[in-house]
């Protein structure tokens, strides 16, 4: 996720440069054909292009709103996981009488979850925090994050039985685990339910077609400065389309994706410090991007 505005502008410019070059070259081709070779068939009335641009702008706005809602819901669910992981660490220390192994397992949970959401293999953070026995059990299942919650739940049950802890206390801790599982289910729903093809594919196709037709309509009015006006307008539509395509997949490896590594490391630090472990350093932005 971009957190530094100057760096963000540079990133957006680098992403926009290839389509901008292509648009400008196409505009020059149109101008040369019209101005030098007098290809009158290239003249297009301006009204249909204006209507097409207005319709495309509305279409892109609707898609981008839907994409941002997915991105923001993912961020909200990660916020719920953060709060509940902290609550679990506190309850493990105050109500269960310690159990640093359970705190470490919960610290490993966001790392397991972020790897699962991105389809990555087990990471070093997970291996560092889990016991070898629990690590083997967790990664013997297809849904590793759910299995880790299950193992943590078994550890809570064993501690309750060993210490004779009241059932109400057990219920309090179990509700925290249920809230984490509910948030995980929401994240998995976002990952496994892409936007409809009408929102994910048609805007990109319509944007490309609009940018191809635009100079054909503008050249009769703008003449030799068509590349300036047409490229800028086309670039704006390209950036609108690109932003929507980036936001609709909040978990992919992208500078626009959710900063899951940063959030996972924050949770880990919050859970390890109270039990006396030395946590790793917080994640710092790299070139204005929070990973």
Summarize the structure.
This protein has 11 helices and no strands.
Name some characteristics of this structure.
291 residues; 75% helix; elongated; 0% strand; mainly alpha
General description of the model:
With 291 residues, this protein is mainly α. Helix content is 75%, strand content 0%. The chain is elongated. The N and C termini lie close together (6 Å). The model has no long low-confidence stretch (mean pLDDT 87).
Helix content bin:
over 70%
- Overall body shape: elongated
| Structural class estimated from helices and strands | mainly alpha
Task: Please give the number of β-strands.
Answer: 0
SS strand fraction: under 5%
> How would you spell out the order of helices and strands?
HHHHHHHHHHH
Main sheet? none
**What count of helical segments does DSSP give?**
11
Query: Between the first and last Cα atoms, what is the distance in angstroms?
Result: 6 Å
- Give the overall average pLDDT: 87
Low-confidence residue ranges: none
Rg from alpha-carbon coordinates? 26 Å
How are the SSEs ordered, and which strands pair?
Blueprint: H1 5-35, H2 46-94, H3 100-118, H4 124-129, H5 132-138, H6 144-163, H7 167-192, H8 197-200, H9 202-222, H10 226-247, H11 260-272
Helix pairs in contact: 1-9, 1-10, 2-3, 2-7, 2-9, 2-10, 2-11, 3-6, 3-11, 6-7, 9-10
